Amino acid sequence: MVKLLDTTLRDAQQSLIAARLRTDQILPILEDMDSVGLFAMEVWGGATFDVCMRFLDEDPWDRLKAIRTKVRNTKLSALFRGQNLLAYRHYPDDIVERFVKKSVENGIDIVRVFDALNDIRNLKTAVKAAKGAGAEVQCGIVYTISPVHTLEYYSRLGEELASLEPDYLCVKDMSGILTPYVAFQLVTALKRIGLPIDLHSHCTAGFAPMTYLKAVEAGADILDCAISSMSGATSQPPIESLYYALRENYPLELNLHALQRVAEYFWEIRKGYERFDYAKKERPVDLGVIIHQIPGGMLSNLIYQLEQQRALHRLEDVLKEVPRVREDLGWPPLVTPTSQIIGAQAVLNVLVGRYRLIPKEVKDYIRGLYGRPPAPISKEVLELTKEEVITVRPADLLPPLWEKIRNEVPRDLVEKEEDYLSYALLPNVALEFMQRRKKRFNQKAKTI
Ligand code: CO
User: Fold this and answer.
1) Interval between CA 269 and ligand 1 midpoint (Å)
2) pLDDT digits 0-9 by tens, 310-330
3) Contact 249, 219 (CB under 8 A)
4) Under 8 Å between Cβ of 90 and 395
5) Measured in angstroms, how far is the CA atom of residue 59 from the centroid of ligand 1?
6) Distance of CA 173 from the midpoint of ligand 1 (Å)
7) What is the domain partition of the chain in residue ranges?
8) What separation in Å is there between the alpha carbon of 234 and the centre of ligand 1?
9) What is the pLDDT of residues 255-288, one digit of tens each?
10) Ligand 1 centroid vs 2 CA: distance in angstroms?
11) Is the CATH number of domain 3-273 3.20.20.70?
């Protein structure tokens, strides 16, 4: 038995059209999506929260509530970056607890959490809060390739994660670098833990559908995929193709008429986003991520940084420096925020000299403020920085924030408790959004 988790409304649209789908474009098709017979739909989290307020002038909480009203049969899932939730730094426990609880109250059934460093201490609070609120929990295993990320490493990590008592484990291959035969071994090893396994990959390097097939053969229970018209390239494999490919061996029942309507619908919507569309700008298969192990988003960041310094001709040197910095810093996976941390140091090492300049983020990382690196940090780098390394969980050093936020946000801008949480995560973005919202409300009141 294989189940399909549809990412169309979160990861797929985030990967292909910069998360620009508006709620009024999502709502009309939800009843059809709900009738497909999917295991779950990922509809919230990742970058969509930020983009909603920043670029679409929409309240992400209202979106979630509106989706929940229309989706009655299918579970809804959200993705959180552990103690970072939906932003870019660690938040104190009181914010994490309230944020996760509110997201479940507003309609999330499955909370998926991961930590960029696979430090399970950064998942504990979110997992506990989600379980306490009655949601199911998926603990994410961030997949990367390095000398320390062996099958044994992942098996041990899976065991550790199982101690948090999640309902599922999720192999999160955010760059699409998990190859089919490695997936077979990995899923086989993780299945021994006894939890259902969800596999999340991207088609970026072209082998995700093959990887899914081998994972299913090894016993993977859930596959993350997207409607065909929003699949492929940096998105997930297509639902329809998986259905036809798998059903000859695995029972899968989907409403094909509904699937067809959903596919048509999003194809038309997508045409309106050509200026954002990945497929209009980039090649359909990008092997860079396999050759130099640098995910697409990070590569464009590096190019941008080098252009700013008029040093684009040093790109090759930087690409060679990235794995060296990764090794020095204990082989972190390259995902937000570690991809930026490693990238910035690699650029400086090439342009100014190795570790002559060390940015604050790198020092914080070395101090352990992001969590424990997968392997020890090199002695040379530790001696250079002379940073005192913390041994506690990073969030243990953060004082509670909720009461402070309550006093900080102007009362006349607040409509509901969730507004404080939006502000806690993204103060400027949320404040500006709430100001525009109030202005709109006042204008409306005037015209009535
Ligand atoms: Co993804």
Assistant:
1) 21
2) 999 999 999 999 999 999 999
3) no
4) yes
5) 23
6) 7
7) 3-273, 294-395, 401-447
8) 9
9) 999 999 999 999 999 999 999 998 988 889 988 8
10) 19
11) yes
